[in-house]
Specification:
2 copies of one chain form a homodimer. With about 230 residues, chain A is α+β, with helices and mostly antiparallel strands. Chain A has helices at about 1-10, 25-35, 95, 115-125, 130-155, 155-175, 185-190, 195-205, 225-230; strands spanning about 35-40, 45-50, 55-65, 65-70, 75-85, 90, 105, 110-115, 175-180, 210-215, 215-220. Chain A binds a DNA duplex (30 and 30 nucleotides) through helix 8.
Chain lengths: ~230, ~230
DNA sequence: ATGAAAAATTGATATATCTCAACATTAAAC
DNA sequence: GTTTAATGTTGAGATATATCAATTTTTCAT
């Protein structure tokens, strides 16, 4: 509890978990942000943002982990990416229609800053370097989706599951042993297959000793083999 | 041939086929663009831009039609969208790495303007309204890809093919009878299936009298039924 | 600790989809 | 116009994947 208050009282100018993007702001701009932000803590499982709702703020994740996903047809979702601490979250709604076009749910207890959208836009229009970096960030996200579209439509299940695990390894945890933050069902949403198929593939991967799963931890034993599976699709 | 020269000599300030985006520029800005653009005519089938190459210019299509597609695994492609006259084409490469992240090939004889990227960026940084509209355009494209990702991964083949045809109807031609600019193979690339499957679905749709194909023209006979197929996936 | 709910597992079966191979038609090149 | 190449068509068979139903394990609230 002590930690809760400490964090929420911390000012942007002292923040250690700021996204690279906000690191480009000067002191006055940061104070402007600070005066127009809301800081909220979420428990694992809670919805941080719901697709379709009005976008009043942009987000910056200070700590924890979350999944960012598209809600599709008949309740099915596609996880676009995992959100890490210091990740900025804007999205195409900023300029299109001021709505959120994806949902975000906390996977771990997470601390999130909500920065007023108009304030954010104001700074974008006055700070050239900031604007440029924002666009870089946005563009990177778009390329991730391009990639995802290709691999989800052109690879078979083993390749897609390998890609999902490699994504967690390469981009999220950056080590061969990491906590299983995603349920089998969520893994299936990340790799566009049924829950049962995800279970079977993980079992196969374990049988072939490519991975080991125990105590809510996943260890990648043979990353080269996984990369090969990813490669051959 | 006369037409070729006439078009290529036309100045931006007199251009009738300018994208909405460039319509926001004032006379001086247009003259700046005019002085730093190249105008090129392409024959149907020619490659306008190749994925992976250096992005020296952004594009604006004056006339004709083109396909914009991602080159994926083992030569397979995914068509992202059809480019119409007056469409602006930038892409995530502008801010990410100055490379093209998709390829563009002319479907019909097409006339395309190439605007110097640095000039384009310069105007972006000086004309607020222009910048805002550019971002709207970019964001709309991103949402198209979100949509595509969902429908390609969560619908079955009949729904995907219905979506492809409805896309041509609703967004490209806006009438129930239109020229078959895409081969069966290209239609399969638009709906993420094999060429043979695309052929079969079109045959099925024809048998059920939802569409009619003759003389390089496709006519949608029962759009409500198509929408229903799209809807049920 | 206990029971209820949620998640994971499994194998059998049904279905969707691709691949292959053979052939037909159309467009392009000479 | 004839030949050649590209595109389109078809059905059969193989394969990938989803669905279903039954069971076990884990998690969570009381």
């Amino acid at each position: 509890m002590a930690e809760y208050f400490e964090k929420s009282l911390k000012r942007c100018t002292d923040c250690q978990c700021m996204s690279q993007l906000f690191g480009l702001l000067n002191k006055e701009e940061l104070e402007f942000v600070d005066a127009n932000k809301i800081h909220v803590n979420f428990k694992a499982g809670e919805t941080i943002k719901k697709q379709g709702t009005f976008m009043s703020h942009v987000l910056s994740v200070n700590s924890g982990l979350a999944k960012l996903y598209l809600e599709g047809i008949e309740g099915r979702s596609a996880i676009l990416r995992i959100v890490k601490p210091s990740n900025f979250i804007g999205g195409p709604g900023i300029y299109h229609d001021q709505r959120h076009h994806f949902s975000i749910t906390a996977l771990l207890d997470s601390s999130v800053c909500f920065i007023d959208l108009q304030v954010f836009k104001k700074i974008l229009s006055t700070n050239q370097v900031f604007a440029e970096e924002f666009l870089k960030d946005f563009s990177r996200d778009v390329l991730t989706v391009y990639n995802r579209l290709i691999y989800l439509t052109q690879k078979q299940m083993p390749g897609r599951m390998a890609d999902a695990l490699l994504y967690l390894h390469d981009e999220i945890f950056e080590q061969s042993k990491f906590p299983m933050i995603l349920s089998r069902f969520e893994l299936s949403e990340l790799s566009a297959m049924s829950r049962e198929s995800a279970v079977k593939l993980l079992r196969d991967f374990q049988k072939e000793e490519l991975i080991r799963i125990s105590d809510h931890e996943l260890e990648i034993l043979d990353i080269d083999a996984l990369r090969k599976i990813s490669h051959i699709g």
